[in-house]
Amino acid sequence: MRYIVFDVETPNRANNRMSAIGITVVDGGKIADSFFSLVDPETRFDYFNTQLTGISSQTVKGAPNFAELWKQISPVMDSGILVAHNAVFDMGVLKKCLHDYDIEWKSTAKYLCTVQAGRRLLPGMSHSLNVMCEHYGISLDHHKADSDSNACAEILLRYIESGADVNSFIRTYRLT
């Protein structure tokens, strides 16, 4: 199986645009590729989000907007099962960006949430990304999209290595 693990950062509480995306490709049971880009959200930044992510309107100057970036990342995003930690959040931001930029992709996408899988595989513990990374000894620079997507990919690999049938956690997300 090929998994496209991604994480987005957002500029404000509306969570309808992204200011960064990290993508880590898991193929054949190992990390095969990774990608990171800042994204010009073409909207305002909240102080909270800037403090959390370190990304501001100055940081994204010259970065592609989502429509420009989508041309580059859509082949990768289309090449496997989408995976995210707290996937409903990241899938929701992706859906809103596709809608806001009038990009037709597909009506549904298969995805897997490492939080939901973790709650079944490791009950009785917190499944926040930093706690999971500490549990597995995974390096994390939290709220940095590239580090977060890589950490999520490592968590997915730990689940697979433990013998878990991660494909039983695949769900369908409606994008339209």
Q: What is the helix fraction of residues, given as a range?
A: 25-40%
Task: Tell me, briefly, the overall form.
Answer: globular
Distance between the termini: 25 Å
Helix and strand run: EEEHHEHEHHHE
CATH architecture: 2-Layer Sandwich
Number of domains: 1
The CATH topology is given as Nucleotidyltransferase, domain 5
- What structural class do helix, strand and pairing data support? alpha/beta
Name of the CATH superfamily: Ribonuclease H-like superfamily/Ribonuclease H
Mean pLDDT: 98
Question: How much strand content do the residues show?
Answer: 15-25%
In which order are the strands of the major sheet placed? 3-2-1-4-5-6
How many distinct helices?
6
Rg from alpha-carbon coordinates: 15 Å
How many E strands? 6
Unreliable runs, pLDDT <50, ≥5 residues? Answer: none
- How can the largest sheet be summarized? 6 strands, mixed
What does this molecule look like?
This protein is of the alpha/beta class. The protein has one domain: Nucleotidyltransferase, domain 5 (2-Layer Sandwich). Helices cover 38% and strands 22% of the residues. The protein has six helices and six strands, in the order βββααβαβαααβ. It has helices spanning 47-53, 66-77, 87-100, 114-121, 129-136, 145-161, and strands at residues 2-9, 20-27, 30-38, 81-84, 108-113, 171-174. It has a six-stranded mixed beta sheet with strand order 3-2-1-4-5-6, sandwiched between helices. It is globular. The model has no long low-confidence stretch (mean pLDDT 98).
